[in-house]
Design goal:
Strand 3 and strand 4 (about 170) form a beta hairpin. The strands form 2 sheets. Strands 1-2 form a two-stranded antiparallel sheet. It has helices at about 5-15, 35-40, 80, 135-140, 145-155, 195-200, 200-210, 215-220, and strands at about 125, 130, 160, 170. It has about 230 residues and is mainly alpha-helical. About 10% of the residues are buried. The protein is elongated and about 80 Å long. It contains 8 helices and 4 strands.
Amino acid sequence: MSAVTVLAILVVIVRAKPVIPPEGTAANKAFSPADFPAVFAKEEGLIGAAGAGAAPPGAGAVLFPVPAPPFSEGVFPCMECHGSIPANGERRVLEAMHGDIVLHHDEEHRWCLDCHDAEDRDHLRLASGALVPFTESYRLCGQCHGTQYRDWRSGIHGKRTGYWQGSKRYLLCVHCHNPHSPRFASLQPLPPPVRPQFLRSEDALAAAASGGPGTDADTKENGDAGPAH
């Protein structure tokens, strides 16, 4: 490809008009947390460094508190009942109690006592035998789901509030995934972010809706290049 051809292609790209979506489409809306109150409404947190908030391993001296597990409120401590009942390690379908729990979580190889400690049901049990509270359940999940755990710590997988500045708070895996049946149906993706030039000029959007190329001011100021960037 000759230099003249490359230069001609670059000129076409630079002078091309941006494609502005028609007014009224979802792509014209800039979404904010207020549009999804159910997702951002959880404001309870375990604030403080003295045992109240648990930092994801590797976070150094910075503690990122996590909210209490979503099923904690109104649930009696497990040992209120299990403290007087001998542990039964037989793999079976629960009928007398917890019959509403349907296990679809590698059920061919896993069972209740692979995660819950047999002697202390108020804690979870790691593969090493160490006990962790339910507020640190991510340590248990991370033993098998290493990739997701790595991304969660980085704020990529799941939800970490705090945005770009200020204090940050992680949500536990179980805030989105049922620990006994973690798979859920695919979610409909949201539209992409709105490009700044689309938000800056309502006239350009109105012109696009009527089939026009843009405002007269844009054309006069920028030639055929369309709205200013």
